[in-house]
Fold:
Amino acid sequence: MMTTQVSCLSGDANVPSINEAIDREGVVIIDNFFSDAWLNRYNDEVQPLIEAHNRTYTGVEMFDDFLGYNTVRLQGLAAKTPAFVDALIDPHLLAS
Structure:
């Protein structure tokens, strides 16, 4: 079995290092990319959406079996959570 090495960089990694890992491996893990304050804010904004979700079904058994009957899927987070927008415009993401 073939294994793939995935780089794990610190949250203060520079953009060239991030891009190099992505170019080489197609993926990178960045430890502590988001601050605890951002995570708390995001969770506070998303939790009411999760609680309000009624776990609707598609009505197509094949899709529901694949997607899961207890899975909560949220769409349009940029319109619903300002913290998500802040993540989208993060300089590290925009520069890579």
